[in-house]
Amino acid sequence: MSQISEKSPQHCAKKKLVNISNLQKKLFLTFTTFCSSILLLILIVWFILRPTKPHFSLKEADIYQLVVSGTHLLNSSIQLTLLSTNPNQKVGIYYDDIQVYAAYRSQQITLYSSLPPFYQDHKDTNLLSTLLVAYALPVATSFNYDLGRDQMAGRLVLNIKANGLLRWKVGTWVSGKYRFNVNCVALFVLIGPSAGPLTFKQGTQCVTTI
Fold first, then answer.
1. In a domain, 1, yes or no
2. 160-181 pLDDT per residue, tens
3. Structural domain count of the chain
């Protein structure tokens, strides 16, 4: 005698749920494996290329005005040119934001000047020029004394600083944003009275951190 077995509707429903659950697990595993492979590939490419931080140098700077009015209000005007170089062989750089300003004895002496965003291809070089100004900018009460003492000594040291955001480009892949900081030291030598601007033209390498 043969035995007839009937499956209840509840049993069929459970079997369908098991099949759906297995399918979801397979899809999730496939998706996870794909994402992991892409991430691993990016990390391998990143490790092989290892982007080098950009190089900055101060080409020239002209001080047209650096005068304290009253006891602690500064008027300043400084024209400068920076040279930016991408030293990488296969990595491009997007500069999304660059803010430049000048400092004297750790005091900011100009307002921020914004440079327009730009893309720098590998082994490429760009000249960046801007005018830094300030009107009635509050400074320390000792500023005028320090400035006069340095002028009497015949030398004036300024820091030209920049900060902003950059992204690395490898092929079609573009990284997230990284903050960078640039610090350039400019030594101005005063030789007798001069009717023109105080000029720095020696050129100097800047320190860049990311």
1. no
2. 999 999 999 988 989 899 999 9
3. 2
- DSSP classification of residue 52: P
Percent with pLDDT over 90 in the chain:
63
CATH code for the domain of 199: 2.60.40
Does residue 2 lie in a domain region?
Answer: no
Burial (CB count <10 Å: 0-12, 13-18, 19+), residue 85: middle
The CA distance from 58 to 95, in Å, is 18
Identity of residue 22: N
For residue 35, the enclosing domain spans 7-50
Q: In b/e form, how buried is each residue of 161-174, taking b as 16+ CB within 10 angstroms?
A: bbbbbbebbbeeee
Among residues 151, 116, 144, 150, the alpha carbon closest in space to that of 130 is found at: 116
Polymer length of the chain: 210
User: Residue 196 gets which letter from DSSP?
Assistant: S
